[in-house]
Sequence to fold (121 residues):
Amino acid sequence: MATIDNEELTDCHGDEDEPDEMDTTDVLVDGTDALGRRVKAKRWNIPSNVLQSLEQAFETDKHPTMDARKQMAAEMNVTLRQVQVWFQNKRRPVKPTTTECSRDSGLNPGVNPNPNPDISG
Fold:
């Protein structure tokens, strides 16, 4: 089994006191870091007053125009993208889980409908 000297580790990783050549923690305007990798946006916690306004707007029109979304975004002090995504998510139907599907249909794909094959029915 080969051993590695501490000096070799230092040479591989560089001196800890030296600053990194490129700081990749800064997010650029286009949503990427300094190396061009996409950076996941932080989750948006919708204030209750904004949520109430969005819900009312959704009752009136499930597919607002771009101009209507721009106006909502300006009035609510949020981005146009936040309004757009909220409407997209609100329109998306809720899919039942697999256990609900199998319970509703009476079939469970992983279970043998005749657990005792010796008995014919």
